[in-house]
Amino acid sequence: MSERHHIRQQIRLARRQLTTAEQQAASEVIIQHVADASHLARADKVALYLANDGELDPQPLIDWYWSQGTRVYLPVLHHFSPGHLLFLRYDPDTAMTANRFGIPEPRLDIRLLLPKQELDIIYTPLVAFDSTGNRIGMGGGFYDRTLAAWRHGLGPRPVGLAHNCQQLPAIPTDSWDIPLPELITPDQHWRW
Q1: For the whole prediction, is pTM greater than 0.85?
Q2: CB 146 within 8 A of CB 168
Q3: How would you classify the pairing of strands 45-47 and 71-77?
Q4: For 103-136, how does the pLDDT look when each residue is reduced to its tens digit (9 = 90+)?
Q5: Which amino acids are annotated as binding site, given as ranges?
Q6: What whole-number distance in Å separates Cα of residue 74 and Cα of residue 95?
Q7: 3-191 placed in CATH 3.40.50.10420
């Protein structure tokens, strides 16, 4: 078993073992970190995700952004370009469907589509991270492909969201991995 696979198993188990109360508390604290960071709080168009498999649940942050008048988008698996994501507008009444992983996403409607380069921020889920911004995702490479332009200073700013238990001393990296410039946990707002 590869080291990255072992890390994924270990950290996914740790975050799934968090109690409902711990999950809810973590989600609420994230809002304060975002509200305290003007570049995040003032964003006009943000992409978030719906939590799966013990991920930090950004729904309270989505609700907060809606209350601020911010437009929220969710990732949708690209139907014609495997391994890539599209971003569709998400509102309380958006029609949803389950993708091939069983994760809810907006039903494909071209009127809701926003090119990713027009987003201000992409909040990314992750499995593990280290104190230098390296991250390990679920292994599909969806966010690495989505954030590839960021490596060259183009596109929306990626910001990771994670539980404290997802931090490791160091993450093994590959050439295609995109380190994050910013990450928020309940205990800390990291910027690199």
Answers
A1: yes
A2: no
A3: parallel
A4: 999 999 999 999 999 999 999 999 999 999 999 9
A5: 4-8, 50, 55, 135-143
A6: 12
A7: yes
